[in-house]
Structures are given as C-alpha cells and as structure tokens.
TrEMBL record:
GO biological process: response to amino acid
Source domain of life: Archaea
UniProt GO MF annotations: sequence-specific DNA binding
Organism: Halosimplex carlsbadense 2-9-1
One GO term describing the cellular component: cytosol
SUPFAM superfamilies reported in the protein's UniProt record: Dimeric alpha+beta barrel, Winged helix' DNA-binding domain
Pfam families, A to Z: AsnC_trans_reg, HTH_24
NCBIfam families reported for this sequence: TranRegLrpA1_Halo (NF041395)
Protein name, as recorded: AsnC family transcriptional regulator
Keywords: DNA-binding, Transcription, Transcription regulation
Amino acid sequence: MSAESTEERILSVLEEDAQASYAEIADRVEVSKPTVRKYIQRLEDEEVIVGYSADVDPKKLPGQSIALVGMDVDSGRYVEAVRELKEIAAIEKLYTSSGDHMLMAEVRGPDGDAVGDVIESTIKDIEGVTAAHPSFLQERLK
C-alpha cells in the first residue's frame, strides 16, 4: 500500500472518531501502532491536523445557539478583515469558501439574541465586511 493511502485511512478514522486510540486506528487501518503514531505526529507537525474536537448537536446544548454566517468582504480589506474576524471570541471556526460567500464562520452564543448581536455589532462593524448572512443551526441530522 502507498503512504498516501495509509495517511488517508488514518485521517478518515480520526475524522470519524477523534478519540480513537493508536491501537484502534492501527487495527482499523491495518498498520502498527508506531506507524500510526509516526503519521499522526507528521500530520500535526505539518498542521494538516490542526486540532481535535467533539461534534455536538446544537439542539441539545442548553443555553447555546450556533449560526453559520456567510460573509462577503471587500477585496482591498480582505487580509485585515480576516485578522479582525479571527480575534472575535464568539467565532469558533472561520473558513474561506468558494460558494455564495467568501468566508463562512461558526458563531456561538448563549442564545440567538447574543449571536445576532455579535453579527450586527461586531462582524458587520469590521471595515471591509460588506455582508453577513446567518443561518441558525436547529438540529443535527447526521
């Protein structure tokens, strides 16, 4: 098997279960634990793996609201706007996008009003942000 296929299989296991042990990954990928450890260390060093997290069902989070916010940014202010967006504590994740919007952010707050306030009073106030369109998550289906 090629190194690439081993790497992809290890990443696939981690994406499915970020808490899988080296032994579990090794069994599923059919390689040794030291091989798994080596690949994971390299992927972390190369920042392919940037962290481990738990997937949550937003409907089951008491006192928390989550919105995915599509944003458009003036190209002349893009770098500065992204820097400012990265500093907003309520933004859990920030992505570039090739879809309807240039950027997508996961914004969390204690309730919908708090998330709305972050969008209206913080995100939209950043110079260069020309639009912010929230979609509030209701229920995780998969």
